[in-house]
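Task: sequence in, structure out. Protein: Response regulator transcription factor.
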Amino acid sequence: MDKTKILIVEDEPTLLDTLKYSLEQQGYEVVTASDGVQALAKARTEKPGLVILDLMLPGLDGIEVCRILRQEMSLPILMLTAKDEEVDKIVGLEVGADDYLTKPFSMRELLARVRAHLRRVRLLREELESSGQADQKSPNGDVAISFGDLVIDESRREIRRNDDVLALRPKEFELLLFLARNRGIALGRSLILERVWGWDFDGGSRTVDVHIRWLREKIEVDPAHPSRILTIRGIGYRFDG
Ligand code: CA
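Result:
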């Protein structure tokens, strides 16, 4: 049984109940919210592993909720929309949803998507945590993470590219490590600031942008057209390996 916690945000009580029931049947732990403000509060306190988010909500709409969640946490967000035009809106605004389903959708389809996203995230984490993909050993025996010609060696706190050690500032190293551990997930600037610089840091999110630029100069083949650290408009950055 997968006891991942899922937050459902939906203002139609019948649909909310149906979704809750179906997900619980699959063994998920479910928490719910029926408006945007409540959704943010629940996400912050419950720390779900995935969010199913209706686009049209009273008060704060799904797009705003999605944008704020992306700034604060890394987790899959599946959006529910009433019309295809709304899908265009989500895609056009690049709000950072991982996926979307147009109503009416089949519960089977929804469950398949939920499973797929949770699996994707779990694999990414396992890949980085286990020694499976982390295939290079540093001289003292600790595991390092490698992406093509790039090796992130945590124990030696160094990055190597084609076996050359790159000269990185300490924060550049921590930033790259944080991005790499969340490979494939869009990370908001506020989240990056909090995790890499800490709550008490006074500098603004420009600090993140500056460090990303420095990192790109060191790890990208063409820093002007990055392929490893991508900018996700309106959100922040995503490391693609
Ligand atoms: Ca709605």
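The chain has two domains: 3-125, 140-237.
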